[in-house]
Amino acid sequence: MADKKLITVVGATGAQGGSTARALLRDPSFAVRAVTRDPDSDAARALADAGAEVVRADIDDEASLVAALEGAYGAYFVTFFWAHFSPEVEQAQAERMARAAKTAGIQHAIWSTLEDTRRFVPLDDDRMPTLMGEYKVPHFDAKGSANHFFTDAGVPTTFLQTAFYWDNLIVGSGPQRGEDGSLVLMLPMGDAPLSGIAVEDIGKVAAGILAAGDTYIGQTVSIAGEHLTVAEMAAQLSDAIGQSVTYVAIDPEVYRGLGFPGAEDTGNMFQFFRDFSDYFVGERDLTLVRQLNPELLSFREWLAAHADEIPIPPEEG
Ligand SMILES: NC(=O)c1ccc[n+]([C@@H]2O[C@H](COP(=O)([O-])OP(=O)(O)OC[C@H]3O[C@@H](n4cnc5c(N)ncnc54)[C@H](OP(=O)(O)O)[C@@H]3O)[C@@H](O)[C@H]2O)c1
Description:
binds NADP nicotinamide-adenine-dinucleotide phosphate, seven-stranded parallel beta sheet, alpha/beta, single chain, 39% helix, three-stranded mixed beta sheet
């Protein structure tokens, strides 16, 4: 145990942190300290059963974060935008984590971030609306503009730019019934490729970054599992579920108006993916991602393991 590098993992009961904890637990050179607000939850108990040390901390409480980071070599930091929908809260949480990492003397932090889209679409660019007064894609911009907290605090950090989870198909972004009753994937992506990834691979990449020692400190590592148009995704989904799914390209403005919480934010996000796909795809070099995680799944491979978890709305009547 003493020769293992201890990694504190924020969000360990969730998607990114969970995959990171599981990936690190497979590697005998690492030990995992899993952060949760509720060590008695089923997810926290499962982590303890798998060999993690489970500690109670809250990213809104700096003292609890420092305690969770004390004695650790490294940390995986992620924020939870959809828990509060506030870019300012997200930035404050990132700043708090960076300060706590400095206080605890963390030697390698991975900060799960995303592009500040305002570098590409300035606020006065009216191709998409400005949201909440000063953002284009609030849950991207807040993360990207929080990167400097880690550098300012002098925390040795790798900036991990993630991508669209294919697992979203299981939790709300799966096929719907179109007006004619057929199965459709409705997204405002035009014919542009969508960079997607299996959640489980995010953690495996994070483990690969930590296993590479200091190599990626100070660097931005941008990841995906595959870049596919939504029409290609629909075709592969059709094969996997044995029912025809077609892609319906809608206008970003229509998507923004769908009315669910976060529709405007994610509408702008898809428009950013569509309008800047050369940048977004080019930034996510699958060769590097595969070096960090040789088990990286393609969408077809992810479907082979998970298609039966995707909810398929029943036929009407
Ligand atoms: N969905 C996508 O396609 C996608 C793609 C790229 C990036 N992202 C980003 O991923 C982030 C979310 O990460 P995720 O998907 O891993 O989240 P998630 O699966 O929803 O995980 C949430 C976990 O975070 C913990 N948590 C929530 N608030 C906390 C707090 N105040 N202090 C400590 N722990 C807290 C909860 O653990 P306990 O209840 O056990 O405390 C929960 O298990 C978002 O900011 C989103 O923008 C999402």
